[in-house]
Amino acid sequence: MRRAVLSFAFLLAAVSVRAQDTRPTFSVGTATAARGTTAMGSLVVPAASDSGLRIAVAVIHGARPGPVVAFVAGAHGTEYASIIALQRLISRIDARRLRGTVVIVPLLNVASFLAMKPHVNPVDGKGMNGVYPGDSVGTQSQRALALITREIVIPSDYVVDLHGGDLDENLRPYSYWFRGGRAAQDSASRALVMAFGLDHVFVNDVNPDAPNAGRSLSGQALVRGKAVVVAEAGRSGIVTPEDVALLVNGSLNVLGALKMTDRLLHAARRTTWLGGGGRAGGNWSARVAADSAGVFIATATRDQRVRKNETIGYTTDYLGRRTGDIRSPINGLITFIRGVPSMWPKATLVNVAPILAAPPAWVAP
Ligand SMILES: [Zn+2]
């Protein structure tokens, strides 16, 4: 316990405030906040080859200067718990007492939300967490992300990207520690992930010099030198108070860790480290994807530990005749499993993550 507290204190020292934005007003899109006030407005994506879009944004410009932190959710517009969490976060931050500036975008992918279409923007079929840095003359997703890169990512010192289990994902909460092999940036990100406070953390290694490293929001922020937190809670279209509280409290903890508020932080709980993307010491998550259309029935659940080749579900045709068993590809923890019977080719059926004793050294993927 003592060891945990000491290392946490050390990590907090590593995120000592690195920026002092002294602008009297702070603008994002149509929202301009004077010091000590909160302003609300929109990022306006004009129509071009397809329809335009207004993305709602809140700017909380603290009475005193400090770093700029951006919170974004709803790149996947049906990951509802994360969207509701950022709505609620706005009123939990008092601009008169804040040091620095907080920018909050609760819902990036408005068309996904309105159409209840998971994973992609139904206007152009693109993923809104996969085409950064965007393109100002591209389709709606590309134009929107070009604006997000310019107005949200570039002016920020820290970026927090919230997700959760989508309509078809039965997910347990976790966060990601994205590492690019730059020691100061990686330790600042780790400190914020620890402060956020979710008890399961994926270790994801990124090579910031790789051509595709900046395709996601976290990757785009990482290649631009920002400390990054990605956290997920919520599942299957349900908004539970517990999942929303994990994300709201985690976000407030980040502001406390950055000394932007006076929020007291508790020492980190015991962390379960999970192998994510990249190499992470040779241990990474494994997904099973459907090879055909049909019906999936889960027999295991989120947060269950499984062994390699253990059955986690089965598939049937539309008359209920069994067409196959789905088995875990590795020993590990089910971080999410398909939460609905609908199954199409390449649909993810399960994600199993290896449990790591400790985060291994960064290795270029
Ligand atoms: Zn998502």
List its traits:
globular; OB fold (Dihydrolipoamide Acetyltransferase, E2P); 21 strands; 2 domains; five-stranded antiparallel β-sheet; disordered N terminus; 365 residues; ten-stranded mixed β-sheet; 7 helices; Aminopeptidase; alpha+beta; binds zinc ion
Overall description:
The chain folds into two domains: 2-275, 3-Layer(aba) Sandwich (Aminopeptidase); 285-355, Beta Barrel (OB fold (Dihydrolipoamide Acetyltransferase, E2P)), CATH 2.40.50.100. Helices cover 23% and strands 31% of the residues. It contains seven helices and 21 strands. A hairpin with a 5-residue loop joins strand 16 and strand 17. It binds zinc ion. Zinc ion (ZN) binds next to loops.
Question: Which range best describes the helical content: under 10%, 10-25%, 25-40%, 40-55%, 55-70% or over 70%?
Answer: 10-25%
**Name given to the CATH homologous superfamily of the largest domain:** Zn peptidases
Low-confidence stretches: 1-18
Number of helices: 7
Q: Strand arrangement, largest sheet?
A: 3-4-6-5-7-11-9-10-12-21
Q: Quick one: biggest sheet?
A: 10 strands, mixed
| Structural class label | alpha+beta
Into how many domains do the coordinates divide? Answer: 2
